[in-house]
Amino acid sequence: QCCDEGKSYLTTVPDSPATKAYIDIINRIEKYCDDFTSSQNSDTGEKTNE
């Protein structure tokens, strides 16, 4: 129901198993993207703005 009211489920019930699962998925996607970008940059010799 919180989403029906325009509230974020992730911040409304941060301790729920569903929220923890979503955050885990988000973290895995971010890590994959970071690793992929790093490997692409090392293959091309490009530098990142980190």
TrEMBL record:
It comes from the Eukaryota. This is Uncharacterized protein. It comes from Mytilus galloprovincialis (Mediterranean mussel).
